[in-house]
Amino acid sequence: MSNTVLRVDSSPRGEDSLSRQLTAYIAEQLNQQQPVDIVHRDLSKTELPLVTYGHIGAYFTAPDQRSDEQKTLLGASDKLVQELKSAQQLIIGAPMYNFSVTASLKAWIDLICRVGETFKYGENGPQGLLKIERAFIVVAAGGTPIGSEIDFSSAYLKQVCRFIGIEEVHIINASASKRDPDTLIQQAKQQIDEIVFQTAEAVAV
Length: 205
Ligand SMILES: Cc1cc2nc3c(=O)[nH]c(=O)nc-3n(C[C@H](O)[C@H](O)[C@H](O)COP(=O)(O)O)c2cc1C
Known about the structure:
The chain has 205 residues and is α/β, with parallel strands linked by helices. It has a single domain (4-196), classed as Flavodoxin domain (Rossmann fold). It has helices at 18-33, 53-59, 68-73, 75-85, 103-112, 154-163, 181-196; strands at residues 4-9, 37-42, 89-95, 119-122, 125-128, 134-141, 168-175. The strands form two sheets. Strands 2-1-3-6-7 form a five-stranded parallel β-sheet, sandwiched between helices. It has a two-stranded antiparallel ribbon with strand order 4-5. It is globular and about 55 Å long.
């Protein structure tokens, strides 16, 4: 598997962030397994626009028909889509905020789900267009158990990945539910190693 890994972080908590510790660890382990180029998109340092009526019009206008105004409007979205198109693997750090994802991560998702770019409408409905081979999604939470009926992050992010064409999606459990932070980090790293180095039967969920 080659060669470019896109790492997307959305925690605003800098070095205190559990999800960042683990997205960094995944990048290190992937690089250890096989040298990779890491592109880091830090959403806590990126000002992203929210989707407006103008964006929607531009999304559904053929690229060669877009006005200069529409091209300018799509600048941020185009850049983020290009980062995804250049990647073979994807890592997302997803702190749970109020049972779902951070606003910055949601803004990123709304800008990268682009008709004609990352998905298209086929005969059998929407079809993902990205060639990313696998995704790691670190879901960090204070107490909400990952995979429980009040976790609206994991299944949502998995669906977004599938929607844009990523079939192999691994949710890394970084919920502090019933564990202290050290145990959480240690167990999450073990889960990551099992997937990256296939030391256990790693099943994409
Ligand atoms: C605004 C806000 C909302 C939160 N909502 C939840 C929540 O719904 N469920 C939960 O288990 N933890 C919640 N937390 C706790 C964070 O998910 C937890 O601190 C996590 O470690 C954050 O990720 P980070 O360490 O990468 O910043 C919330 C924290 C904040 C600041």
